[in-house]
Amino acid sequence: MVEMDAETPRHLRDRYAIAGVGETAYVRGSGRTTRAMAGEAVRKAIADAGMSPAEVDGMLSYQSNDSVLSTMVSADLGMRLNFYMDVLGGGSSIEALVGIASGVIEAGLCRSVVIFRSMNGYSEVRIGGSGARPAPITGDALHSAPYGWMSPGQRFAFSFTRHMHDHGTTSEQVAMVRVIHSEHASNNPKAIMKKRVTVNDVLSSRMICTPLHLLDCCLETDNATAILVTSVERARDCRHLPVLVRGVVGRVSKPRLDMHYQHGPITLAAGAYGKDRLWANAGLGPEEVDVTGAYDAFTFTTLMQLEAYGFCKPGEGGEYVSDGTMRLGGRRPNNTSGGQLCEGYTHGINLVIENVRQLRHDADDSCPIGPDGRRVHSYDYREGGCRQVRGAEISMNMGWAGPQTGSAMVLRRG
Amino acid sequence: MSARAEYLGMPLEISPLDVENRDYFGFCARREFRLQKCLECALVRYPPAPSCPWCASSSAEWVPVEGRGAVFSYTAVHHPIQAAFKPHLPYLVLLVELDSQRGAPTPQDALRVVGNLANPDGTLAAPELVAVVGIGTRVRMVFAEVSAEIALPQWTIDAADG
Fold first, then answer.
1. How far is B114 from chain A (nearest CA, A)?
2. Chain B neighbors of A126, CB-CB under 8 A
3. Where do the domains of chain B lie?
4. What is the ipTM of this complex?
């Protein structure tokens, strides 16, 4: 039985906020280091909050041995830190780190925490790549790499193939994730891929590894992103309306992380183990969410997470992602920036940045900027137009490390 | 001393400290498929590990396990990430559910072993063969020879099952 008590304060509900967001351009060929990009993203997130770097005394980052550490970025911005940590990880990291940031501020270790991810995912370290001269395959990897089972697409595909077999999910349905995200990207001047695509475009793009076509896969991108977490009291003095953290689950996992396919159902993502904790902590349920950010490393990852957290029943994801619910103007738009399939792949912070802007009612589309410095949204979602969700109050982000591990976060307009 | 070998041009290496993998691939080199059986709870586990995923006991013995089962899921790889596989496209990566210990300790558990679709001699199967395999296809284990100390378990279509 899930407790859905929205009134009683539970854990740190509504006590911490995202007060600032920042990002560099989404490009393929940044021409600079992860250190230079991280500095820009962090500086922008702090400025967006209306704060100065000297006021921020905590820093977190995540990476895969492919990026700059907090030590260099803080020094570049003249910050003296009371807390910092750099962790390993990709797609399940940002929501979990917001949870950690709230915890360390609550514990009195520091007052504000800026979290960043900086990656030259196109021009330096490409995800899933083995390099020109691969290192010896050793240890646990002896049970995967010698079989050509190595890249994220290859590793996740067993869940996708089985989902189609068990539930009758079709490639046409799954392709709609790309189609819808491309529509959203066409209204995002920052997106790498702004062109709207059709189901046929996806299905006729070359096969990478079944059931994933090229257009089922996200974009290798050079980019840095950052968000600033602070107490709700501090956030109320910042430049924007605070976006409050309602609830977080961080790196919730299925059994057998050593090789999770040993325990089924392999079609169900780890969020199924986290959803009762998340919704209870947030004091609301999927029906109350206005906009979602379901991690789209691949089209199929979006589908599996929406099922796992209860936006539809297990097995019904194919219908959910293709019936128009996720489209701008639909009942619950997903990845309104175009996500990692179209805006750029940056391990998930960009999906949080987008939702923060949605809850501020200030999506950075092509709508004209009014006298108060904020966009005057038309809510006309045709190509090149608006991408603000009307009256967005509650958002949810779902982060994916694999079928076996995920994180999620519910945010509320403050 | 580390066991070093090369498979399809890929360097493989087993550290002398990694006794679980040394033993597992060593049995494979002798054409035996063995897995660790927990001496406390009697469950067999895959992949090799220093303790039991169900009861956490670190006592185990290597027992012979029948290398037969059915394809539980798969992916056909058309775009190679590793240069070693470029001459073998498309190749099939299989998740094979063994007949042994199926549905234990819970109905959701099974020994699900990864490997490629191979010919009976352990070499990677040709694309025509890849096209006829799907979920439910019966397969049996064969071994791809790597060195005196290492062989890789692989899967071939089980003709005996028709």
1. 7
2. none
3. 3-161
4. 0.98
